[in-house]
TrEMBL record:
The keyword Ribosomal protein does not apply. Gene3D superfamilies: 3.60.21.10. Keywords: Signal. This is Calcineurin-like phosphoesterase domain-containing protein. It comes from Nymphaea colorata. GO terms for molecular function: acid phosphatase activity. The keyword Signal applies.
Length: 50
């Protein structure tokens, strides 16, 4: 669905997630790594803002 977003009509693209892809908290070490492998390339390709 990200490729279908009209960025003229929706200039900010925000994807809410339960856990962050990146964090520096040792209690959650590597927690977002598996999500990052799957989602990061899409977020970069489709210029997700947040």
């Amino acid at each position: 669905e990200l490729q279908n977003v009209d960025r003229e009509m929706t200039p900010w693209l925000i994807v809410p997630m339960h856990a962050p892809l990146y964090n520096s908290n040792y209690a959650h070490y590597m927690e977002g790594e598996s999500m990052c492998v799957v989602f990061e390339k899409w977020f970069v390709k489709y210029k997700v803002d947040l």
